[in-house]
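Entry for (2Z)-2-iminopentanedioic acid complex. Fields follow.
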Amino acid sequence: MTKQFVDGIMEQVVTRNPGEVEFHQAVREVAESVEVVIAGNPEFARAKVLERIVEPERQLMFRVPWVDDKGVVQVNRGFRVQFNSAIGPYKGGIRFHPSVYLGIIKFLGFEQIFKNALTTTPIGGGKGGSDFDPKGKSDNEVMRFCQAFMSELFRHIGSDTDVPAGDIGVGGREVGYMFGQYKKLANVFTGVLTGKGLTYGGSLARTEATGYGLVYFMTRMLQDRKTDWKGKTVVSSGSGNVSIYAVQKAQQLGARVIAMSDSGGYIVDPEGINLNTVKRIKEVERGRIKEYVNAHPKAKYTDGCDGIWTVPCDIAMPNATQNEVDKQAAETLVKNKCIAVGEGANMPSTPEAIEVFLGSGVSFGPAKAANAGGVATSALEMCQNSMRLNWTFEEVDRRLNMIMNSIYDQCIGASEAYGLKNNLVAGANIAGFLKVAQAMMAQGIV
Ligand code: NDP
Ligand code: 2IT
């Protein structure tokens, strides 16, 4: 069944979704992992569970017209892919980046189905976004764009239907503007978005959650190697929400983080990254990472973000974007004696890079599992909104830690059950798939 099964699925997916290469990549990885599950459960094959999962339940594409500060009309394209609602309302972030097209939103929405299943919380999978580029735009332009985007999206979402959140280019500011417009149009105050501000229904620790969760997950990976973060040299790509809080937690646990990046280039600070400087530049001033060297002259800036993987480290965290670690980068990391890689970004390693890591004894934490702390804490925000209650930071953080431990246990359990010990890629795909597949079986052909 092996090759035939995966090839059959891929033929259908490629024909139906031409040119969407990131989506094809994400589907192939899952199909390769779960074919053994389907082989052992013929009822899944008969009910065409995987064939149904790869087809989104609903895909929305819409015009987003707005007027810039010069009075010029701009036209962007908006997306929301409501992929799978077998275990809960569609849930997943919104990405604003010029590279966004349907194939990116579909790969992200597809991964989100399995990630969300792993969180132990009741949320289905979805994703949205736009090719709008927030870089260089004024606050007013961002606000007008977010309002225009929500003017269409609001009719398709709801606190028990579809609950968006942030992703690349969408943080607290954008969520706030989108929430305001939703509330105005729908005339309800409800937890329809997560990652909200703390004064209007946001959860403490949601900002930190993806990065902290990644480090909690990797702590288990390191424990299995009988080690921890203390004194480890760490490289974390990106300098956005995920990277900043992964670095913060790693530093709290005694790691020496020496390199971070943005899409322009990377900095290496042999004295250890000063996170307050990074936060000022990226969160307050919305500047470029190269400005870091102005405050820390011993640090060095290099143009081009790919080179960051040549910086020798014990632990690597790709926290920027998809396919940022290729085969060559993976080989360089292995050559430099890197022992663990944890994916904070979605699909940051190419399939060839993953093969290098798995084949060389590096502990590898795949995105679906390792970065699930963000969406898990979004589910905790939904829970608090429904209860009309707010938990303390410590309470949310405690639950996040428990969830990341549970995800790790699920991945290890599934990998061992299928004779693939220590292959967390297969473990995450299988454990996530099983939960969704069982829910779909119980609900009939819908
Ligand atoms: P941010 O927008 O806060 O930061 C993104 C960072 O990655 C920036 O430093 C950005 O640089 C860099 N980056 C973005 N696109 C590219 C690119 N094409 N090439 C090189 N660098 C790039 O986003 P997040 O930190 O929220 O997201 C980072 C990753 O984590 C994404 O893959 C996202 O899907 C994933 N993720 C996010 C979660 C969340 O809760 N926010 C949850 C789970 C996963 P620059 O500023 O120059 O653009
Ligand atoms: O990729 C992701 O998991 C996110 N961007 C977070 C989604 C969410 O709904 O919190």
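NOTE: The mean pLDDT is 98.
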